[in-house]
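Re: the 61-residue chain
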Amino acid sequence: MEINKDTTIGEVVRTYPEKAQVLMSFGMGCIGCPSSQGETLEQAALVHALDLDDLLLALNK
């Protein structure tokens, strides 16, 4: 599965638990909270003022 802008944080953490560290390195410390489970990476990048392309690149390494 390729991680893309429409992938939710919950999907990333469930499918690739090791990627939680990548999310946290981008400042997403709330990856375990219930609302983040349905939030897409695009939405999270917007909320956290992150560059979506950088985030996706790091997650797909």
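The chain has four helices and no strands.
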